Hints:
Blueprint: E1 4-7, H1 11-20, E2 22-27, H2 33-44, E3 48-56, E4 60-65, E5 68-73, E6 77-84, H3 92-95
Antiparallel strand pairs: 1-2, 2-6, 3-6, 4-5
Keywords: Ribonucleoprotein, Ribosomal protein, RNA-binding, rRNA-binding
Function: One of the early assembly proteins it binds 23S rRNA. One of the proteins that surrounds the polypeptide exit tunnel on the outside of the ribosome. Forms the main docking site for trigger factor binding to the ribosome.
Family: Belongs to the universal ribosomal protein uL23 family.
Amino acid sequence: MEIIKKPVLTEKASILTEKQNRYAFKVDHRANKIQIKEAIEAMFGVTVVGVNTMVVAGKAKSRFTKAGNVSGRAPKYKKAVITVKDGDTIDFYTTL
């Protein structure tokens, strides 16, 4: 099971990184906080102070076609916000 899927690179996540030394990742929905902490420490070589997880609901999507209005949902996913020790940083662009 691949625990860490990809980093969340949004404006809100980058503000968290700059101000509070926190990083956001999309993770496997079956992973718990301990597994996420171990995976981050092994992958990036940093000391993890805290892990917060949340399940993000998929957005409702709809489009109008010849067959009528087609509606559905984007898939839900689990997001983890990682707090690392002061002085530690994660560089996404060299490790991907």
